[in-house]
From TrEMBL:
It comes from Aptenodytes patagonicus (King penguin). Keywords: Membrane, Transmembrane, Transmembrane helix. GO terms for cellular component: acrosomal membrane. It comes from the Eukaryota. The keyword Transmembrane helix applies. The lineage of its organism: Eukaryota, Metazoa, Chordata, Craniata, Vertebrata. The gene is SPACA1. The chain crosses the membrane at residues 138-166. This is Sperm acrosome membrane-associated protein 1. GO terms for biological process: acrosome assembly. InterPro entries: SPACA1.
Length: 194
């Protein structure tokens, strides 16, 4: 297709540059550029561009309506952008960009019927709503779990503060009992040595 290409140099650039642009040139690649995306797409009409580079009037544009198992129907439109209103069935269009009688680029578009567009839109809305509901449920669960854990930790701390004397006596009794156990162990080891 047509386009602009930057020619880069990867060695011998000035200074410490690893890459530098040598020149910018027009490039020509494969003619078939595949499927295009419309400029604007509404419920009623679609605007589709051909492939071109400025100046637009440098090229000739041939729009075709592609019909399955039949020869393509050439349309009278010869501009770079074509506006098509939706019909009761889907239609595929192709634009060929020509220069000096040669095809240098080609792009295709499918314009879906009004009913297909509405069906796709309702499917997107349904899918989006079901995902949103699942995500909301997960967020609510995580939030409630976090609140319960936080309240439980605060409640345990309050109980410890209110009953500090009891907690302190338990720690002291345990440490006192540990000291008595150590003293008894030391006495028994001394007796064994004698």
């Amino acid at each position: 297709g047509i386009g602009i290409r930057e020619v880069l140099l990867t060695s011998g650039c000035p200074g410490t540059e690893a890459k530098c642009i040598v020149r910018v040139e027009e490039c020509r690649g494969p003619v078939d550029c595949g499927w295009g995306i419309p400029i604007s797409e509404g419920l009623a009409c679609v605007k589709m561009p051909c492939i071109y580079i400025p100046p637009e009037n440098r090229f000739k544009y041939v729009w075709k309506m592609l019909i399955p198992n039949k020869t393509a129907h050439i349309l009278p439109n010869d501009s770079a952008i074509m506006k098509v209103c939706r019909d009761t069935h889907s239609v595929t269009f192709q634009c060929e960009t020509q220069e000096n009688g040669n095809i240098i680029a080609s792009v295709k578009y499918t314009v879906y019927a009004t009913t297909e567009t509405e069906t796709k839109k309702s499917r997107r809305i349904e899918t989006g709503q079901s995902r949103r509901t699942t995500t909301d449920a997960i967020l609510v669960f995580v939030l409630l779990t976090g609140i319960i854990v936080t309240v439980g930790a605060i409640f345990a701390m309050i109980l410890m503060i209110l009953h500090w004397a009891v907690v302190k006596s338990i720690w002291e009794s345990k440490s006192g009992q540990d000291n008595q156990d150590k003293k008894l162990a030391n006495k028994s080891s001394l007796r064994n040595m004698e």
